[in-house]
Design brief:
282 residues, 8-stranded antiparallel sheet, mainly beta, single chain, Jelly Rolls, 5-stranded antiparallel sheet
Length: 282
């Protein structure tokens, strides 16, 4: 049997596989020689104590992960795609709901009066609001500070469907009552076959004159009942007298109503606003 050669208290030719136990740290040089790491296998990433892993060391396509353990993810790093509505809040997201501060989808205005549309006149022939449908059984129609281009004109309401505004000569009926300030007598008008629903008497266009009214549209047609109107108004007449009144009206037959229009009997609307609200039951 051949013995290993002992030189200066060292054993030459001793195979590393013959070693048992642990080599003391002091037996290693202060600086280990550089190594390529080519033959390192099963390297545990927890042993990486410094430096940055180069991008080239990652695959072109990262494996899919659940993201359960991702924390402190910055939303500013979202560069594409859309966050699903279910991740934003509870409730049903739709064109008629909004995300509240408590992350709940709800109808605008708390589900009571919801603005369908508004239009401001600027020497306009008429003002029309679309978007009415079977969602609401009652609509509120607000007409504010309407001033006629031509002095002493009536304000009219008309309705329509997807084919446009109904201007039929005998499609409407109405009944109105009017009182001219403290010196005037109560007067009334009605018609069972007309081409609009008058909602005022003569409106003046002198500086400071104009018209304001609030009407309600009941049964906008989806129930098979003809659209019905009722409301009150006030205006300053062409002669400068305050006029107060109330009225009712109807389109004589049902219609799949989706729009409503206000206008003066003749001439444009110099200024004013026309707004329509849907009134919810809850």
């Amino acid at each position: 049997m051949a013995l290993s050669k002992v030189v200066d208290n060292s054993i030459e030719g001793l195979a590393a596989s013959k070693l048992t136990g642990t080599i003391a740290d002091a037996r290693f040089p202060a600086t280990l020689p550089a190594a390529s790491g080519v033959n390192l296998t099963a390297l545990n990433a927890t042993n990486l104590g410094s430096g940055t892993v180069p991008d080239a060391r990652f695959p072109a396509t990262l494996p899919a992960g659940s993201g359960v353990n991702l924390t402190a993810l910055n939303a500013t790093n979202l560069g594409s795609g859309t966050v699903p509505t279910a991740r934003l809040g509870t409730g049903t997201a739709s064109s008629s709901t909004f995300l509240r501060g408590d992350q709940t989808y709800a109808e605008a205005g708390g589900g009571s009066w919801n603005l369908i549309g508004t239009a401001e006149a600027s020497n306009s022939a008429s003002l029309t609001i679309t978007g009415l449908d079977s969602t609401y059984d009652t609509y509120a129609i607000a007409m504010s500070a309407l001033v006629p281009q031509t002095n002493g004109k009536y304000v009219w309401l008309r309705v329509g469907d997807s084919s446009g505004i109904d201007e039929g000569g005998g499609d409407y009926a109405y009944s109105t009552f009017n009182k001219l300030d403290s010196t005037g007598a109560l007067s009334s008008e009605y018609a069972t076959s007309y081409h609009a629903i008058p909602v005022s008497y003569d409106v003046g266009n002198t500086s400071g004159y104009g018209y304001g009214g609030m009407y309600f549209l009941h049964c906008p047609g989806d129930s098979g009942v003809a659209p019905l109107f009722s409301g009150t108004y006030t205006n300053v007449s062409a002669a400068g007298r305050f006029s107060m009144g109330m009225g009712t009206g109807a389109r004589r037959t049902a219609i799949t109503l989706d729009r409503i229009q206000c206008l003066f009997a003749t001439g444009n609307i110099t200024s004013g606003r026309f707004s329509v609200y849907g009134i919810a039951h809850a």
